[in-house]
Amino acid sequence: xxxxxxxxxxxxLVWLMVVPAVLLAGASGLSGGDLPRLVIVxxxxxxxxxxxxxxxxxxxxxxxxxxxxxxxxxxxxxxxTAFLPQRDPDxxxxxxxxAPGRAIxxxx
Length: 108
Hints:
With about 110 residues, the chain is mainly alpha-helical. The protein has a domain at about 30-80. The protein is built from two helices and no strands. The protein has helices at about 5-30, 35-80. The longest helix has about 45 residues, at about 35-80. The protein is rod-shaped. Mean pLDDT is about 70; it is low at about 1-5.
């Protein structure tokens, strides 16, 4: 099952930051002087930082559930295979199972 919020949230954050920055840069570019250049540089730096932040959050959030699923799968597989009967009890290196019976006397 894939989480939809993990894929949409970074895109939404990027759009929420890019659109106002572009509008501010366009509005400040209409007037003359050094202020529009500073606003454009500041807004582009802010957008670049937010894009990097959104990308790192997206990468971090996608790795977490995958590792959890792997851990859960391995745990379930271990529990499932722990009680499987031996396929070949007479294989080399395996001790022969004892027949049920009376206890063996170790001392006379």
